[in-house]
Amino acid sequence: AGGGRAALRACGVHNVCRLLSRRAHGFYARDAGVAHRKNLGLLRRIMCQESTKFKNVWTTHSASPIAYERGRIYMDNYQCCITSIAQQPRLIYQKSKCAKSEKIEDALLLECPLGEMLPSPSDYKASLIVLTVQNWLLRLSADSGEVLEKVYLAGSCCKFFRYLSWDTPQEVMIVKSAQNKLPAAARQAGIQQTVLFYLAVFQVLPLSFIGMLEINKKIFGNSVTDVAVSNGILIVMYSMGLVRLYNFKAILEQFMEQPFDLGQEFNWNGQVGVVGKYPFGLPCNIKITDTPPLLFEASSLENAFQIGGYPWHYIITPNKKKHKGVFHICSLKDNALAKNGIQDMKCCSLEPDWIYFHPDMSGRIIHVGPNLIKVLKLKEVKNHADQMEIAEDFTIAANRENCVNNSVTVTASGRVVKKRFTLLDDDPEQETFKIVDYEDELDLLSTVAVTQIGADGRAHLDFHCNEHGILLKSIPLKESWDVTYSHEVYFDKDLVLHIEQKPNRRFSCYVYQMVCDTARDDD
């Protein structure tokens, strides 16, 4: 408090709000993070200069999936790691080919939290949490691939853990099983399967076991199709489009039978073993015996449901196929539809438009169609402070200036010819948006737009001002882009990385690095 008052006196600022605003803009050199913010601001300005180019510095092809995490490219089922931070990508480590029984099913990057005292020096470096097909949870060094910790997950209860996700990013991790299904012979014999999923919950750094629970038909109903955990909320999805939310933290506290630590010897339900060691694995120590209190439920087409904005709102699609592509934005408080809360681009396209809350935590909403991106905002209705409306913040349109789609043409002889069909909004011969992303460190909105003429598709990555949508930079991608393939594009500060999946499990990776050289336009 004394330092804050001194700063106020030193700069002649007597308003707290103004002080905080000046601090956010980096006016005080002794504030933590000021140098980093200045450097990122410089990088953004350099990157958006006309003379700055992005050069394709590396290309590789693989018969196995390629993954990217924070400057590292993983290949050969995470056995090979390549850094993309160097001027040209180079090998960090290459492990011997693993057996099928050691195949990695899923992975998460784990980074050291700031300001925390950790038990091991290795905890201060980035690591990779991986889940193997044989139900081992491994923590690997991101620099060498060395196994730092290993936990055996599956005891007698479950044999098929397959998915990793964050409940709270970099703090609480969820390991989810595949859906339990009885063999056909067992079903014919009349055997009932009541447990649908298992969830194992871990605190990370240091890695510690919180508990394991089952999602049971007897508690949650027969029509459960999937479950997820995010930000302390248990999300249960049903076949009829229903989505139900429960307080996950309250479930852990209410139904925990006995806490266990990794490496602890236990005698549990007649089993004697060590927690996290083979062959016992983890005990199912959270038994939900009654339906937990329901926080919220909504019905939405294909279980599509999102929460965000301020005050809290949610987005759904009415649960009928004829409403596909229509989005309702409603208040979480009272389910009231916001003014202008029905968003419908009325697209006539093969691929549907999509909508989501902006990841920059501004509370805005991004709605992406084939040729138009709308950034929307929530604001109070004038003279009605308790009602919110959806307003347009800015739009980004595809470049279709040269597109001619007349339904009626006149020949040289004067004969009128009417077309019997019209082009789709996402026709490959028209520029169409395929990817929209947000680079949080540079505060840029990135878009990938594609035009395909014949067999040759051309794509460009554009950077837009996140505040106003102004186009700041356009980068042509040199490789051909086939709209029928699966594509991922990562924009990470001065790096652009394009991963492409072709038929027959053929994968390609193209890496672009920022270069500043006005003398060589071909770069």
From TrEMBL:
UniProt feature coiled coil, ranges: none
GO terms (BP aspect): protein ubiquitination
Transmembrane segments: 195-215, 227-246
Keyword Isomerase part of the UniProt annotation: no
Keywords: Membrane, Transmembrane, Transmembrane helix
The keyword Transcription regulation appears for this protein: no
InterPro entries recorded: DCAF17 (IPR031620)
Cellular component per GO, a single term: Cul4-RING E3 ubiquitin ligase complex
Source domain of life: Eukaryota
PANTHER family in the record: DDB1- AND CUL4-ASSOCIATED FACTOR 17
Annotated protein name in UniProt: DCA17 factor
